[in-house]
Amino acid sequence: MNTSSTNAIYASNIGATTADLRALGANRTLVLIDGRRVVAATTQGGSMVPANVVDLNQVPTSLVGRAEVVTGGASAAYGSDAVAGVVNIILDKQLRGFRGSMQYGVTELGDNKEYAISLAYGAAVNERGSFIIGGDFSDAKGAGDCYSRDWCLPGRAAVSNPNRNNGLPATILLPMGSIATATKNGIITAGPLAGQEFAPDGLSTYAHNYGVYYGAGLFQSGGGDMRHPFYENIPLAAPTRRITLLGALDYELTDSIKLIAEFSYANVKASTIGAQTRDTGSIIIQRDNPFLPSSVVTAMTTAGVSSFNFGRIGQDLGPATSKVERATTRIVGGLEGTLPNGWKWNAYYQYGRTDYSQRQQNTRINDNFTRAVDAVRAPNGSVVCRINADANPANDDPACSPLNLFGQYRFSPAAKAYTYGLATQDTTISQHVAAATLSGNLAELWAGPLSFAVGGEYRNDRAFGTADPISTALRFYTSPGAPIDGEIDVKEGFVELGLPLARGLTLLHSLDVNGAVRVTDYSTSGSVTTWKVGATWEPARQLRLRVTRSRDIRAPNVFELYGPRQTSFQTISDPTRGNASVLPLSILGGNADLKPEVADTFTAGVVFQPDFLGLDRLRVSVDYYDIDLQGAISTLGSQLIVNLCAAGRAELCAQVTRDANGVITSVSNTNLNLNRVQTRGVDIELAYNMPLFDGRISTRLLATHVMNLKTTDQTGTVIDRAGQMGPPTAPSTGGLPKWSGTAQLTYEQGPFSISGQMRYISRGVRDVLLVGPDDPRYSTTRPDSVNLNRVRPYAYLNLNAQYAILDDGARKIELFGAVSNVLNTDPPNYLPLFSPTNPVLYDMLGRSYRIGARFAF
């Protein structure tokens, strides 16, 4: 699941909470409310959250009755897109009276303060209907950046070792990481003056302290600025303010027809601090630049060079800051009823709309920056941009103001205003859905009724918007890119059957089979058919076995098809230059030639609930799943594109752009139908309760074993990310621990209860593409060798307690408190990307507290 703590790195989609079953991507998990479709809330972006998925915050918590989760393929029964499964949020329409909660939370260090309130009311309407209304308000203040925590400063960086004659591996994870090819004062990165760093006042230079550095790649250990710029500024949790409202009415128009009406509105405002500019030797400085100290000009003249490559961290120019607002409105109207023969029918129409606004301030305008950096002295002695002093008036830009990058805070306000600007994007996502179903029993057979259901659905999904001209032209350092304008029409029809085969026989307490077929027609890619066949067998009342085989599909959504090009950055290693790490531009975008994904899914499970030997309070379930997804829509990833190019794939080399020195400057990483994604695993659930000391104690264990999580690219290369603990670089390239789970122990006595929960993450490796010393394949001569790749197992302890100060049946007031990460366990700090750890798996905030009250009357 993605939250404000896992997607604060990027501006796009901050504040969204999304479901991601089986780590196949949130866009492969279908989210419904009372079995009905929900308009998407996320847009295109470079974040870990894919576009066109539902924000779970659209339903007030006080109105949630329960959530049904169906894992594995469910497209035939629930609708297209349910490749990984379905999350169906069921509203509590039986609510009568008021209920709600208020709470306050804060971390041990005093940040990430959160105030939240949830209220709901339900009532009968003329004895023929019911009405519920509820709302949530929460205001989370967010947390500081990585350096607000003690575990961050010694966080390790991946230092490249291209030579390896020193007996060390190709990549060495070393503490106190910083960048070697860029500093906050500025550094010369190539040529005879390489390694000269400018003083803070910009008037002199000194030898840069490289700490531990092997002459290639981005990172060093120790020395330098002593802080890793990738870890600065970006909050561990994004400030988020959320308001959610929902009202629903069920009213019996007649004894056999019921009216259904529903309205919801959710508004999310979030902000984040992004990256400062990081130029790792890509800036070219000419010898006649008047801002250069005379000592540097003299040294250049002596060395016979007219220019040098320059690296700089633009912390003084400030990081980008982003504000996002997402407003989602949903209206549902429908009828449902019964026929004289007991058959049931329902029909509904839904309109949903999400209005998304993103404002990214202080974003560098790349071409303006290049012009402003290239300064010269005019004949009158003033310092001007070179384009305004050359003999070609056609390239003049009167607004250009020369930018002094030597030292810190040496630039003029006019130069800052010229080189930095505001990136804007406004996107609207709309969805129309009309659906109808009919269900009943076709015949009474020897073991029960033959059930039947048939239905159809029409859906229109559209995304359109606007963006500023600079974003549209991809002129910003990073930006949400050009606006989108795309539309998809979908028509679906399905049939379901349920056939009972046996009842009440020896070893056949019950035996049922079921099946479903759904035909879906997409305006963009044509018709596809999904199906499901399943069986449930109870040899005895205490034991139930189930099995399902299905074919599932997901067609590309509007953003995957029509998403315009946008820019981001990603650290990669260049195998053609000794695995030196670089930070090139990553260009993302849609692909109108995408085809639907097709998944073959097999699930099998057993449920055991004994009623003998004193085990009547025990419940055990074990479920096996196997999902084989063909033509998965994803990106190869910048690193894999570069690797395959180096291995001889000439067609992919066209996606890699290098400068005159052979350094990668950009990689085009657009959506493709990749060959295959496979995942297999087992889910285990165990529950038991018993009386103890005039109270009751209960235990519950939930565990998942991921056997494999394989991706196969177009070359046939297989990567199994089961057991990979390093952070994901895209929504679909993350790994999962081989074992994970939670164990909960609860004791209740009268008005008091207390629970302890242990969350477990098994050991694994930082990156499955690397080989560490504990691997029998390890050799320092390997280009994929690393000194540290093993990640130890982790366990987090959480405690919560509640006490009912009033509970007379009709009225209830309960106080509660909770402590998360009781032992204040620090995360592993050697999984570097945009922080030293993986925010999806590990807790970055440390010990946190929450207190509050629940009430009902």
Automatic annotation (TrEMBL):
<keyword id="KW-0812">Transmembrane</keyword>
<dbReference type="InterPro" id="IPR000531">
    <property type="entry name" value="Beta-barrel_TonB"/>
</dbReference>
<dbReference type="InterPro" id="IPR012910">
    <property type="entry name" value="Plug_dom"/>
</dbReference>
<keyword id="KW-1134">Transmembrane beta strand</keyword>
<dbReference type="Pfam" id="PF07715">
    <property type="entry name" value="Plug"/>
</dbReference>
<keyword id="KW-0472">Membrane</keyword>
<protein>
    <recommendedName>
        <fullName>TonB-dependent receptor</fullName>
    </recommendedName>
</protein>
<keyword id="KW-0813">Transport</keyword>
<dbReference type="Pfam" id="PF00593">
    <property type="entry name" value="TonB_dep_Rec_b-barrel"/>
</dbReference>
<keyword id="KW-0798">TonB box</keyword>
<feature type="domain" description="TonB-dependent receptor plug">
    <location>
        <begin position="7"/>
        <end position="86"/>
    </location>
</feature>
<dbReference type="GO" id="GO:0009279">
    <property type="term" value="C:cell outer membrane"/>
</dbReference>
<comment type="similarity">
    <text>Belongs to the TonB-dependent receptor family.</text>
</comment>
<dbReference type="InterPro" id="IPR037066">
    <property type="entry name" value="Plug_dom_sf"/>
</dbReference>
<keyword id="KW-0998">Cell outer membrane</keyword>
<dbReference type="InterPro" id="IPR039426">
    <property type="entry name" value="TonB-dep_rcpt-like"/>
</dbReference>
<feature type="domain" description="TonB-dependent receptor-like beta-barrel">
    <location>
        <begin position="321"/>
        <end position="822"/>
    </location>
</feature>
<dbReference type="InterPro" id="IPR036942">
    <property type="entry name" value="Beta-barrel_TonB_sf"/>
</dbReference>
